[in-house]
Amino acid sequence: MSLLFKIGFLDISIVNMIDIALVAALLYQVYKLLKGSVAIKIFLGFLSLYLIYLLVRAIRMELLSAILGQFMGVGVIAAIIIFAPEIRKFLLIVGRSSIFSDDNILKDILFFWRKKENTSFNISPIIDASKNLAGSNMGALMVISSSTELKFYAESGDILDAELSKRLLISIFNKYSPLHDGAVIIYKGRIKAARCILPVTEREVPAQFGLRHRAGIGMSEATDALILVVSEETGQISMMKNGKVLHNLSFQEVREIINDYLNNEDLDDRFENLSEQELGKKRNLAVSGKN
Ligand SMILES: Nc1ncnc2c1ncn2[C@@H]1O[C@H](COP(=O)(O)OP(=O)(O)OP(=O)(O)O)[C@@H](O)[C@H]1O
């Protein structure tokens, strides 16, 4: 049984329509994932070539479609190599929202009687240590995770699994400490590891951002963690989430953002895209709106 619709000279079944809708949704997700990166230009290039290939094949231009067909065959392998980090990120997102993951809606419905694990903890040590570090111009990079202990990244550094404390954070990021290079990973009120190496973003970032900030942005692109950076140069605090940034935050704002993150609130709208030319634009607007 197949329900057919006639659009012009085309017969389209419901299955075809679902197929087209799914492909459109998939392309939109890929676009969202690549938006703002160099890879988007390569992706759009591939997509245009593929559409031309479909067109020349449909109108039976044998020679051109044979050449483009060969290119498409190699193109798939080339795309896998070029887009390896994006494919990894895409699979991470799929994995995060799969049937087996913690934040899956289906799981919430099936196991509705089970209380969602409370991931919040006393964040005062993070705020107090950040104040101290910023005041004495010591750089810091902290990864705060609410869903996993980020084992893969934790193992790139030194595992501590120590209780979170202001004094410990300050000692770690002290310039003379052997642990100060790299990031700390904080999960469920414990410092899981220090000296961790994070993935550095490949996108263009504002000129004032060096390697520490680039690593913070990269980590926020690769995982659902919240990142806090204290700048060694300026003492300013920045935070990153899902590849977006908030720059020059007050400690009250930092406290609110971490608490909201740990309470599973959606922070996406509060953060700014790197492509928004002047960082701070959104926040300045919000502040001037309040006055
Ligand atoms: N991939 C990485 N993973 C974790 N930490 C990193 C990584 N790359 C650099 N860092 C940290 O960043 C420090 C260098 O920071 P850099 O001065 O380049 O950054 P910045 O963004 O300009 O920050 P600041 O304003 O503090 O100077 C390194 O000493 C190291 O601790």
Observed structural traits:
single chain; disordered C terminus; YojJ-like (1; 9 strands; 291 residues; two-stranded antiparallel sheet; 11 helices; 2 domains; alpha+beta; binds adenosine-5'-triphosphate
Task: Give a quick precis of the structure.
Probably a homodimer. The protein is of the alpha+beta class and 291 residues long.
General description of the model:
Strands 4-6-5-3-7-8-9 form a 7-stranded mixed β-sheet, with helices on both faces. It has 2 domains: 13-82, no CATH class; 124-276, DNA integrity scanning protein, DisA, N-terminal domain (YojJ-like (1, 3-Layer(aba) Sandwich), CATH 3.40.1700. It contains 11 helices and 9 strands. The chain is elongated and about 70 Å long. Helix 2 (39-58) runs antiparallel to helix 3 and helix 6 runs parallel beside helix 8 (166-173). It has 291 residues and is of the alpha+beta class. Strand 7 and strand 8 (237-241) form a beta hairpin. It binds adenosine-5'-triphosphate. Adenosine-5'-triphosphate binds next to helix 9. It is an enzyme of class 2 (transferase). This is Diadenylate cyclase. Its EC number is 2.7.7.85. Catalyzes the condensation of 2 ATP molecules into cyclic di-AMP (c-di-AMP), a second messenger used to regulate differing processes in different bacteria. It catalyses: 2 ATP = 3',3'-c-di-AMP + 2 diphosphate.
